Every structure is written in structure tokens, then in C-alpha cells.
Amino acid sequence: GGNSGRGSGGGSFKNKQPGGGLRKPEWDFNSLSPFAKDFYNPHPNVVSRPFNEVQHFLASKEITIKGQAPKPIQFFEEANFPDYIMSEVRKQGFDFPTAIQAQGWPIAMSGMNMVGVAKTGSGKTLAYMLPACVHINNQEPLKRGDGPIALVLAPTRELAQQIQQVAREFGSSTCVRSTCIFGGAPKGPQARDLMRGVEIVIATPGRLIDFLEQGQTNLKRCTYLVLDEADRMLDMGFEPQIRK
């Protein structure tokens, strides 16, 4: 099983099942704490925007929607992000949201599940990272021994490190801590980050499973999950690890 060495940073699974030591958690649904996930407050401009204008915007951005979704936003101010997010957006010098952001933010901020398909360089990392920061800041603070609130899985070390750069830029102003864990690097520093407690973990599947099996982290607090380049992870043979 496993990924037979394809792709960097995936971990090695020679002669053993990935996650063979992991057991499905037995949740006691009576004692699970509820958590908030709908933080979307539509901007008055978005609410009042006529149907024809919305359809024209979707067509101009080549946005296709399958299923129910809130109206897209057209300007950053319409996302109703908190000030700490908007100040970082302004600092980065972005003019307008990209297509995946314009439609993705209202969906993600509403706490809905979504599959987003967009080209490389289309701003999809911010499409899920900004709602992740808002989600995290609306949860109970991490306690000692808690795992991450947001988990981002990526197929390669390179992509995982790129994602962490974005998480750092937008998380630092709100004290959202992140770490990047991947194979092919010493486990010590990565394990220390996990044990200290981080709100966001960006990981390749193999190394994450190693840490879960060793009890270095857990997913009991995880309420925001992203599979970045999910199709590529499946192509690379990561399905058994993802299912674990």
C-alpha cells in the first residue's frame, strides 16, 4: 500500500499499511461541544445586487456553480472580513478578488462544504485560508494537548511550504499559529511545533499519519479541513492515507 515513493514529502510505507496503528475514534455525540461555522454576514450591496447583474458577473469571470451557493462578492469590502484580515489584504496590494475568491469566500464563510476548481495562480490558497483564520478566531482557544483547528493536506512538501507562507502572512496579525509537516525532513522540530500547539497544520498525508500514530498530535479539535490539489493527491496514490 501507500504511495510507493511517488511525490516528495509523502513518507515511506514499505511493508506496512499507512495508518495501520490508527483506530477510528469513538465519538460520544452527547458530550461533543457545538462549534460555530457560519460567520457570513452578506454586505448590503451584495444583497441588493440584481439577478441579471450577478449572472453577468459570473459569466465575465467564467464561474460555474453546481448546487446552492450565496451570491458572489465583487469587492474585498463586500466579504465583510474583520479588520485584521482587511488590513493585511490592503498591505498586500490586491485590487479585486479573483474568481475563486469572489464565489468561494461567501460559501466558506457560511460554513458550507465546497469543492473549488481553479487554475494555479488563481488565488485559491487565500480562498480557503482567510475563512480559516476567521473560523479559528471564533473557536475556543486551544488547550494543552489539543490538536489543530484547521488542517490543510497537500500532495508535496513544496506546495505545503507555499501554503504555510500564506498562513504566516495572514495568521501573524491574529496570533494564529501554523506549522508545516512533511516527510524527508527531521521530525524533531515539527514534533515540537505540534506539542506546543498550533491552530493550523499544513501537512503531507504520510508524515501527518506518522505523527498521529505516535500521539504527537490529534484531530479532536479539527473543524476546518482542506484538501489542496485533491485530484493530484489521488493521482499520486494518497487515497488510503487520506481516508485514514
TrEMBL record:
Enzyme Commission code: 3.6.4.13
Compositionally biased residues, Gly residues: 1-22
Catalytic activity: ATP + H2O = ADP + phosphate + H(+)
Keywords from the UniProt entry: ATP-binding, Helicase, Hydrolase, Nucleotide-binding
Alphabetical list of InterPro entries matching this protein: DEAD/DEAH_box_helicase_dom (IPR011545), Helicase_ATP-bd (IPR014001), P-loop_NTPase (IPR027417), RNA-helicase_DEAD-box_CS (IPR000629), RNA_helicase_DEAD_Q_motif (IPR014014)
Record domain Helicase ATP-binding: where: 105-244
GO BP terms, alphabetized: regulation of gene expression
Region annotation Disordered: where it falls in the sequence: 1-27
Keyword DNA-binding among record annotations: no
Designated name of the protein: RNA helicase
